[in-house]
Amino acid sequence: MQTLLLFLDGIGLGPPDRTRNPFVEAHTPNLTALLGGRLTDRLLSRSEPGLVVSRVDASLGHRGLPQSATGQATLLTGLNAADLMGGHYGPWPGPTLKAVLDRESLFRDAYSMSGGACLANVYPPSYFEALNGGRLKVNVPVYAARAAGLSLPDVEDYRVGRAVSTDLTGEYICELRPDLNARPLGEAGRDLALLAADHTFTFFDFWLSDRIGHRGTLVEAQALVEQLDAFVGGIIEILGTTTLIVTSDHGNLENMSTRSHTRAPVPLLVKGPKAGRFEGLVSIQDVPQAIRAAWDD
Question: Is the whole-model pTM more than 0.90?
């Protein structure tokens, strides 16, 4: 049983307003076909064999704007991290959340299974230098993966197809290593699908969506959405028996009229043989439990 969690940082379901929401006018043939419509708050839930499309709450029962550390920790543990912190917290995990991730996460659960676990993002040499020098705050996925005993993929892993670049095409990595080649978006998606086929649990952290939501323009956001769509198309093309789960930790990119996070519900798209396990989920807290249930089948 292989599961691929494509984590989209900071993508909620916003109104169909072309002046604010980049999903309204972006060219997204792959996502639109899967979802049965645009990724907006008008999106209708769908459930059919091998496919579930719905929306889930990211507020975790707390006031204020959802934040990355509590949202991501919830998605990786199934615990209400905002309850543990007494409210939303982020962007980086502190001692309380680190202690939780030291004990449990989907990475840790899958690590002991036959297929193992994989954090699929490639990390450049400068990241490892800062990490080893104690000069770097790491996000929840990195902390959880390392706490579970996983090694972070490096440029050599990327070269042989065992990692995917956060910018999807790998242009950033190729600037560091001119001997490497950038990959078309569809090919990068296929690389991720092949990687997921070899592991019980694979996690890909697409955090550029949150960065553009905080700092970018609507035009940049639309371009990013179109790149993501082509990437997803590559994944779907050779998904095989892997179950793909696409979701987020909070809203942001769907409303480019603000630089802050939003309280919008976040999408949940599941495609694959275990999609039925994800019917009727209400909160992002339910997602890890559904993944565990799929593993137990």
Answer: yes
